[in-house]
């Protein structure tokens, strides 16, 4: 039976015409998607379309034929430096990542990457493959802006810091910061994961959120390993190894490129996606070289190297001139063609800023590159001549620290000055055979001066990036000898160096994040192998301390463990292992972990949160206990009395949630009381406030949508503390799946729950450490939203498990995990009205709180909500475009009658919660209290990526259930406060008519991108407010009435709500934050709004 809610025919017609004709309507994201693809060690000549006589690369050839091609494009002569310049738009030497080992492969903490840039601009960002810009914090992909990453450590598979045993097939890679085993060949996996990420991205929010993919394969870097089917034809043609396998790796990459291009076509993403292809340096094994090898020589067959001199690691053009293809069918780039202007990897970042309309803060490190957009779009661009510089700055065999010319070149459009002594006219002599330095001393002098000036400008950055240990970003930190700082030469970096026990040593340069006790474990082998240390003695030297340890059983012990107190700040870690025959070398592997407590059996207290209601104190202490290694540990709650600290409660720490929970009855809420929680030698202190019952105004701070991309938000936290709210409300999405490394661990069985909780707690602790100064001294109200329980949209359908696709409803994680995760955030709330368990064993926490004379209804508006699949069997597409609708919950057809989606039996809150809400509202009315309803999402479809869409994830659907809830609230006169939609709104709900429902304040995102908005395509039907665009009486896409009073499209921030009990007024404030998530306190039209409660 369909709902009695119907739209008048005239109104539907008006809406349909307006949506089709409105100039403000945008069907899809204005910003293009971007896929940046880079291979490893493939040279300019390693493509058929560039004249290679043996390779077949039909898909790269296809991309070549469809692209704008830069034919004089240059990178660095080898790996890490190219990646640093590509990611930052800056010369590698400035960034700290300009060698391939020796502690000089990691980006400085100050450097900002394309991951940072695109994430900041509202893109979904993913990195797949080879990173080689830092194995440890602060330089990993997740530290540098990427929300999702599947990657391998170090410079190549099978190197020391790679997962031991990887061999290109069925390997184990990092997903965020968690190791995960994959099936298949490495290059196939990188493409599979990239396409999966794209599918997930375009499925989210109706496909209107753009994505940025950085796909950097390790192939065809050595060791040259590929399935026989890819190299067989080369071997049969008489091509020997390693060239045969190298070519097979290139052709496998080309096959994968074909899969990706077809995927973009099939998914209708081709037109709106920028595809960029390049390589990181010249060929490593694509050509055979004669005298001088690939560093100084010429290829035996010039066609194999595009007639260039040199290959990988060479200062000649063959070492750093590489392909650059740019394709964007909808981008008006002009006809596919060659552009012969001298360009470089430094130019990619500024080019993407222009092409995609990105904003980059002036406070970020300045760019060295130049946008290529004028060359692409202008037939007669004004392009100033410049000198570019490329240099290895060291690598295998590096012997000249500080030499500004070692394997370096200064380049202009016409000239190449190589290593400061050879000058070539590249236009007349592309093979660089005729040294003209003697004929043109003035050019040598000028380019030498240019190069010296450049080197002087970058050399201050040529310092190792200190590895951050003991931080909330990474603890423990796994170190390998690959990052020893040695100069000249290289530290042990290959597996063979470990197996043959290379005698060498060097320090790790580290930065201790926090003073405390640390465990430093040394080993000869990686921990995953569980092999014996085979050493008689171990020693360390760090922060002025030296310690030596005799190893009693070298054939059985796997590590040598040291406990010591470390001060915060920079230091060096030296290690030493003594072999059974008396030789000494540094430990190839080390783990550094901050443990804080001197008692290994005692976790440390990190922060607390508490609630106070009905003379009952509920306080939760969060610790660093490990669910994977449960121990019996106790915590004490103490109060400060006149005669000192007194223990009032003691409890065991729950190993699954890492919480100690204290419940104190008969609490005297009229007096403030200092408290502390003690566990072992750790403690955390705070104040239990006196309940402000007699105060005229109650101040509530309200926050929603906290990712960790701009952590620690110190200025914003300081401002909130100074504003001194009486209590604080967190409206959901306290964590995101992309936080703390980006990987989630699934829990489908009871046995998997502890591992999944350990993964969750890393993200939860990141949140807690951000807000702990706010939480320690005031009560908090916290509710969980979809991301908090790893759902990414949730229709809980009464608390059941998910047994189908996302839109069939239910929880994707095991009920035990859901209950544990929700307990960490909500335990301090007043006891639940109807805790359950519900459905398949999931608890509920909805409840009421009276505090300071104000009454709060705390709802769960997702746990009981009906799923879209109940009424939508297949996605409803948009007839205005040929692009598919991948999200059945999003109604894209503006002519579709959304009333067909409503039924009276569908649920939003569920009957039990509706009854609770009705009874609560009548109590509020009877007691003449000011009140608020706290929920995850507003009860209207106001927040969309595309305003013409109807999103069933919003609480505008189902309409009948929505209206029942609003009618229940009306008698209370309560204001509704919610999060979820990422931007601030003040609106009044309409039930039967505009203005007959409660007022609602939807909070802006505190940290997440404000990438939704209210931008109505239909004019208001009265009650517009001056200065507020989009205000007045409107219908949402489901036909619900709303009156918009204030908007904050595009703003981050948080809310302050003042409940004036004397004058019965509620004032709703918006406190804005800038793009760096620092307080800006910009005035926004419509705020503050004052509501008179009658």
From TrEMBL:
Keywords: Hydrolase, Signal. Residues 32-357 form the Sulfatase N-terminal domain. CDD domains: ARS_like. Transmembrane segments: none annotated. Residues 700-987 form the PhoD-like phosphatase metallophosphatase domain. The keyword Ribosomal protein does not apply. InterPro entries: Alkaline_phosphatase_core_sf (IPR017850), Metallo-depent_PP-like (IPR029052), PhoD-like_MPP (IPR018946), PhoD-like_sf (IPR038607), Sulfatase (IPR050738), Sulfatase_N (IPR000917). The keyword Hydrolase applies. Residues 1-29 form the signal peptide. GO terms for molecular function: arylsulfatase activity. Pfam families: PhoD, Sulfatase. Its EC number is 3.1.6.1. Belongs to the sulfatase family. This is Arylsulfatase. The gene is atsA_93.
